[in-house]
Write a structure and sequence with these properties.
By secondary structure, this protein is of the alpha/beta class. It is about 40% helix and about 20% strand. It has one domain: NAD(P)-binding Rossmann-like Domain (Rossmann fold). Helix 7 packs across helix 9. The model has no long low-confidence stretch (mean pLDDT about 95). It binds nicotinamide-adenine-dinucleotide.
Length: about 325
């Protein structure tokens, strides 16, 4: 049997696919090399996977209905799906809203239709995001909290995915799980996310702009923990048909100024920081309550920022040949 992983050239997708292949699974990976950030990094992530037995790669757009639905005929032994392809990023979703709805909403619908067509489907796992907590003030964020005040279109598309999945699980008896990831960082991380932006700025001596006058807290999750959590969830579908949602985060909310200090230590160089007022689309603080995730999957994050940031900086230097 094989597993369909969408967004396989992405940061989390490549990690998940690599871990699945390492335990002997067959993975059919999909990606369209979107231009959200430089695809060269995506090709590099994919290179290692392509050299591994059991990996099949298809360049495709998840929002393209016909070729995606035809996939199940060609790969008739798919029994699990990890749907990670998305257009991510909060700020960019205010600049180019259409691509967010096309990929994250239409693409998600196509994936649900694809999943519905697989009679032997054991589990449909997909990426949501901590952004769905939006304007919520109660911390830490609990998966059962109301989430109807998204602050960005990106968050709204992720919430729409959760609602559509709820409907499909109800209508068609699917077993589905949504994962709300919290700021994932680590080797092979995304250049459009703050950890990479901090590393690049400190290395180049350019200015880091901090919103909310620097009063920002983030639950920063190390990639290996996120990959392990995603696999733990994939391996334990709901007993009966249904849809569940879990937080996957470090459950430690870090002061962003302290995080920058860890980067400064790793680079042995001071950061130049400019404080700015808040942006309307961004959350000031995120903190994950993972009690349910730990209870149901025995998963706990292992890597602290004190350990993870030096590992990320090591990778950043070697990848960029510094
Ligand atoms: N990294 C995080 O901190 C974080 C936090 C919350 C949620 N998420 C979610 O987790 C998932 C994976 O995130 P990531 O950090 O690996 O992002 P990523 O951008 O590195 O990976 C997503 C991949 O999907 C591909 N893709 C985009 N549009 C596509 C389309 N239409 N068809 C096929 N492939 C397409 C991209 O080329 C990319 O390789 C996403 O759904 C994201 O929204 C990530």
């Amino acid at each position: 049997m094989s597993i369909l992983v969408t967004g396989v050239a992405g940061f989390i997708g490549a990690g998940v696919a690599g871990a699945l292949l390492a335990r002997g699974e067959t993975v059919v990976g999909i990606d369209n090399f979107s231009d959200q950030y430089d695809p060269v990094l995506k090709f590099a992530r994919l290179k290692g996977l392509r050299e591994t037995t059991g990996f099949i790669f298809l360049e495709a757009d998840v929002a393209e209905r016909e070729p995606m639905l035809a996939l199940t005929q060609k790969h008739g032994d798919l029994d699990r799906i990890v749907h990670l392809a998305a257009h991510s990023g909060v700020r960019q979703s205010m600049v180019d809203p259409y691509v967010y709805v096309q990929t994250n909403v239409m693409g998600h619908l196509v994936m649900l239709e694809l999943a519905r067509g697989i009679t032997e489907l054991k589990h449909f796992v997909y990426a949501s995001a901590s952004s769905v907590y939006g304007a919520n003030r109660k911390l830490p964020f609990v998966a059962a909290d109301r989430v109807d005040r998204p602050l960005s279109l990106y968050a709204a598309t992720k919430r729409a995915d959760e609602l559509m999945t709820e409907t499909y699980a109800h209508l068609y008896g699917m077993r589905a799980t949504g994962l709300r990831y919290f700021t994932v960082y680590g080797p092979w991380g995304r250049p459009d996310m703050s950890p990479y932006i901090f590393a690049k700025a400190i290395h180049e001596g350019s200015t880091i702009q901090l919103n909310h006058l620097g009063f920002i807290k983030r639950d920063c999750s190390y990639i290996d923990d996120i990959v392990a959590g995603t696999l733990a969830v994939l391996d334990k579908p709901p007993v009966d048909a249904g849809h569940r949602i879990y937080n996957l985060g470090a459950a430690r909310s870090e002061d962003i100024v302290q995080v920058i200090a860890l980067f400064e230590t790793a680079f042995a160089r001071k950061a130049i920081v400019e404080l700015r007022p808040g942006e309307p689309g961004t959350l000031q603080e995120t903190a994950a309550d993972i009690a349910d995730t730990t209870r149901d999957f025995g998963w706990t994050p292992k890597v602290t920022v004190e350990q993870g940031i030096p590992l990320f900086v090591d990778w950043f230097k070697s990848y960029n040949r510094l």
